[in-house]
Design brief:
InterPro entries: ChaC, GGCT-like. The protein is built from 6 helices and 11 strands. By secondary structure, it is an alpha+beta fold.
């Protein structure tokens, strides 16, 4: 069976090249519905440190996220903006187990990408110790602006992700991602 992975964060701009046989941008349907991409995952080893954790994205079921935000949506409601655009990668069978092991902190969910392909997307677990939950956008922007880790500045991760989503899907409106990017860039100008 062909193994496809749906990347929604750093996998968009930094895929596991050694393991990827091909990629699929899915121009008209490169998204997963019913989930949201949020900077709600603590990073102590790439974009932050144990003393000053950065933030990276995770994908969370929209219904769960709405509860964390305090939205009172009827049970089962999926809002029009509850989708995540990304990139699908066909994984070389020799590296399938290694790729799966890399993503051990999240739970897998098999999703249809279109009529031909199925891929796995890793959905963040609310009980994951690295999950930080909902943070006000100004506090989150300040954290991302200030933090730095072995993989570089936290803001670089945000900027690369926003740039990649814009490049791959120029028709997409991702208010959360682009709003957070604007908030961090405003902090750069101010400081």
């Amino acid at each position: 069976m062909v193994y496809w992975v749906f990347g929604y964060g750093s996998l968009i701009f930094k895929p596991p090249r050694f393991a990827v046989e091909s990629k699929l941008t899915l121009a008209g349907s490169g998204y997963v519905k019913g989930v949201v991409r949020r900077f709600a995952q603590s990073s102590i080893d790439h974009r932050g440190t144990p003393d000053a954790p950065g933030r990276v994205v995770t994908v969370i079921e929209a219904r769960e996220w709405h509860k964390l935000e305090g939205l009172n949506t009827p049970k089962g409601t999926i809002l029009p903006e509850d989708y995540v655009w990304g990139m699908a990668y066909k994984i070389n069978p020799d590296y399938e187990e290694e790729v799966k092991a890399y993503m051990v902190l999240a739970s897998e969910l098999r999703v249809p990408l279109n009529a031909t392909y199925q891929a796995e997307i890793w959905i963040g677990k609310l009980d994951n110790p690295a999950f930080v939950g909902h943070e006000p956008i100004d506090e989150l922007a300040e954290t991302i602006f200030q933090r730095h880790g072995p993989s570089g500045p936290n803001k670089e991760y945000l900027y690369k992700l926003a740039e990649s989503v814009r490049h791959l899907y120029p028709h997409v409106r991702d208010d959360y991602l682009f709003g957070l990017e604007a908030s961090v860039r405003a902090l750069e100008v101010k400081n």
